[in-house]
Amino acid sequence: MGGTGQDEDGRGRLGNALSGLAVAVGCVLFLGGFVWGALVYQPYTVPTASMAPTVEAGDRVLAERIDGADVRRGDVVVFRDKLWGDMPMIKRVVGVGGDEIACCADNGRLTVNGKAIEEPYLLQGDGPASQKFTASVPEGQLFLLGDERMGSLDSRSHLQDPGHGSVPRSAVSARVDAVAWPLDGGLIERPAGFAALPGGVSQPGPVKLMLGAVVTGAVLIFGGAAYGPVAGRLGRTRRAGREVSGVV
Q1: Separation between Cα atoms, residue 92 and residue 76, nearest integer Å
Q2: CB–CB of 59/45 below 8 Å?
Q3: pTM above threshold 0.85
Q4: How far is CA 26 from CA 12, 214, 225, in A?
Q5: What is the pLDDT of residues 34-82, one digit of tens each?
Q6: pLDDT average, residue stretch 133-157
Q7: What integer pLDDT is reported at residue 1 of this predicted model?
Q8: 88 to each of 40, 45, 76, 79, 80, how far by Cα in Å?
Q9: What percent of the chain has a predicted confidence (pLDDT) above 70?
Q10: What is 145-196 written as a DSSP string?
Q11: Which residues belong to the active site?
């Protein structure tokens, strides 16, 4: 009879130790995920609907801090350029240095170096541009369009500027990886239409790992903290059951 109490005490001490460890590890993951995110990502509120339906006006996005040299075609980037009003803007890169951009091919698609590009992110029913154009992208520059092609003020509006509407790679400060708010916004996918071109598309940042660390940490914290009350309640229930049956 005394042995049973000792066994329960032993299990209780082990359970308490494991629950404490779970809370400690959970805190490291939870806080570490937020710190990691603060170092890698910058939040950005989308000011206009020029990138709809990929991101809408007022959406809160997570943009990975990157060097402009790492930008690839298809990336949605945050940039700032004096000729564009010297304020943070968000657009999609459709051309890089050396590219010939044109609209539109016989099938109605945007072309890059003569290759027609599938653009599934455009608003349903929208064409790739509201008017025909061609542009040569200088080396070290980027050609940018909004996904809402009918209303976006983008490289097409600056074709007469130096660089044929392009901006320097150095103007880019971040690449958008995900919509943080609203919560159903999800990740920004890399478009397959640009993957076959030289340089391919970029790889997603660590946003999935960061969110995984935060969620796992929260689960461990709540699970570990809940162990004590749950274990205590179960122990009292077992003791009450033994007393009723006459076992002490």
Answers
A1: 4
A2: yes
A3: no
A4: 21, 8, 10
A5: 898 889 999 999 999 999 999 999 999 999 999 999 999 999 999 999 9
A6: 93
A7: 47
A8: 18, 10, 13, 6, 5
A9: 85
A10: E-SSTTT--SGGGGTTSTTTT-EEGGGEEEEEEEEEESTT-EE-PPPGGGTT
A11: 50, 91
196 CA to centre of own chain: 23
Q: Where are the alpha helices (DSSP H) in 54-179?
A: none
Task: Quote the strand ranges of the chain, DSSP E.
Answer: 41-45, 60-65, 76-79, 89-96, 100-103, 111-112, 115-116, 133-136, 141-145, 167-168, 172-181, 186-187
Quick one: DSSP state of residue 204? P
Name the packing angle between helices 207-245 and 2-40 (round to 10°).
160
Q: Is 41 helix (H, G, I), strand (E, B) or coil?
A: strand
Between these two residues, 190 and 15, which has the higher pLDDT value?
Answer: 190
pLDDT of residue 162: 85
Tokens, residue 78 = 């945050």
Question: For position 34, what pLDDT does the model report?
Answer: 86
Beta-carbon contacts of 34 under 8 Å, excluding residues fewer than 6 positions away, are 214
Cα torsion at 173, 40, 77, 69 (round to 10°)?
A: 60
Dihedral angle sign, alpha carbons of residues 50, 55, 61, 67? negative
Query: In one letter, which amino acid is 53?
Result: P
Task: Give percent of the chain with pLDDT exceeding 90.
Answer: 57
Tokens of 85: 């009003």
Amino acid at residue number 210: M
Longest dimension (CA), the chain: 94
